[in-house]
Structures are given as C-alpha cells and as structure tokens.
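Incident review: delayed structure delivery

Summary: a single-chain prediction request sat in the queue longer than the usual turnaround. Root cause was a stuck worker, restarted by the on-call engineer. No data loss occurred. The affected request and its eventual output are reproduced below so the record is complete for anyone auditing the incident later.

Affected input:
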Amino acid sequence: MAQAREHSAVDGSKAPLLFNLSDHLPPMRFSSKIDLWLWVLMTLTVAVCAAAIVMMGLNGSVSAAFAGMAVCAVVLALPVWVVLRTYYELVESDLLIRSGPFRWCVPLDQIRTVAASRNLASAPALSINRLLIAYGQDDAILISPRDKLPFIEELRRQCPGIEVAAS
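Output delivered after worker restart:
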C-alpha cells in the first residue's frame, strides 16, 4: 500500500497524499522513423493491387474482382498494421517495443549499450537509420526512433549505467 504523506491543500488544511505523482509518470512513447523507400513500396503495392482488381472488373469477372479485393486486403493488412503501429515506450522498468502484432519487452536494468547501426536485419525498425540495443547476456534488438537524441537522453536518464557508443 502507498505510504500516506501530508501536503497542504489550497485552503491551508493538511490532506494525506497517497502517492507521489512523479513515481507514476505516463510512459514515454517514441514513434518509429519511416524511410521514404518504405512509403514508396507500400504505395506501389496498393497501386498494383488496385490495378489488378480494376482489370478483373473490366474483364467482366465481378466475382474475381471481389476475390482479388479480399486477397489484397489480407496481403496488405500486416504491412499496414506494422507501419501504423511501430513504436517504442519507456515505462517504469522496461523498454516496450511494438510493431504491429509483434511485441518485445527489454528490462531497462539489462541494457548494456546503445549504438548507431545501419544493419538491414529484420527488426521492429522502419528505417535504415537504427539503434542497436544490446541487453542481457548476448541479446540485441534494432529499433529506429524518429527522435533518436531525445530517446537516448531518456534512456540514459532511466539507465544511468548504459554505454552510448558515438555515432
């Protein structure tokens, strides 16, 4: 249970304070940077799907056009979800990473180093301009926060012992 402390109310009376607001700050969320090439690829994919559906419809096959729409919707759902929902949150004791339906949790006390990276490995990063976060014994994850410097500053604030490699 929270320890009760007293604070002065506006009218000068003493009232119990059950928790310190600074202990319960909302998580800091950092959106992923999204490279132009990814937007171009997504746009071209949508255009190709739309063209295929129109061609099927013009050939008189309405049922094929509807089937094509269903296939395109299923094929595009995951990439769109990933692009729209990739972000990084610094919460009380963890770095939470979300990319569409995929989630990772990195304990802040296990983060060893943060370094700039251009590694193209599959990762919850929508940009080639990435950060490599090494944690635990041999684990690492690549992320691409849009605002790298504020992200690193907040990470340093919450994990004073981490090593930040020069970029």
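Verification: The chain has three helices and ten strands.
Action items: add queue-age alerting; document worker restart procedure.
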